[in-house]
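Below is how a single chain appears once it has passed through the pipeline. First comes the sequence as given, then the structure the pipeline wrote out for it. We keep one example in the README because the format questions we get most often are answered faster by looking than by reading.
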Amino acid sequence: MSDSSQGPGWWQASDGRWYEPQLTPAPNESAQLESVLFNLGDIGISQSWVMTPRGTVAIRGVQFAAQDMTVTTQKTPAYAIVLCIVFIWFFLLSLLFLLISESRTEGAVVVTAQGPKFFHSTTISVTSHQQVVGIQTLVNQANAMASAWG
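Resulting structure:
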């Protein structure tokens, strides 16, 4: 491992460091036979392998993490304001229309997979809190699978 390339065959990981040619994660025949159970962005998880665009590594010793980078905002929709104005002349209960609110979630979740001589990070765009929870559930499942291997 080095901060700069030391010659032909060296490869740069997503952590910015350069690794020796023999440490390049290469697809394994048994990894190609295993089906992907689920994906976290561009990270594929099988029973015993982690597959990324940079290569395939054993799931043993890999730790997964998810960082929630979303923002949720709440606002009163325009139709509620219009209904309040239209019906205000009929009864004061129309003010209850102003209690209507919409929640909007936007942003991304950053998922990282880190192991011995291995690091990969991916960003997954989300538009709802349910998607964030789903990604965190898959990250927990991937960690459970990795810890099951020792």
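Strands lie at 11-12, 18-19, 38-40, 43-45, 49-52, 55-58, 63-75, 102-115, 118-126.

See the next section for the split statistics.
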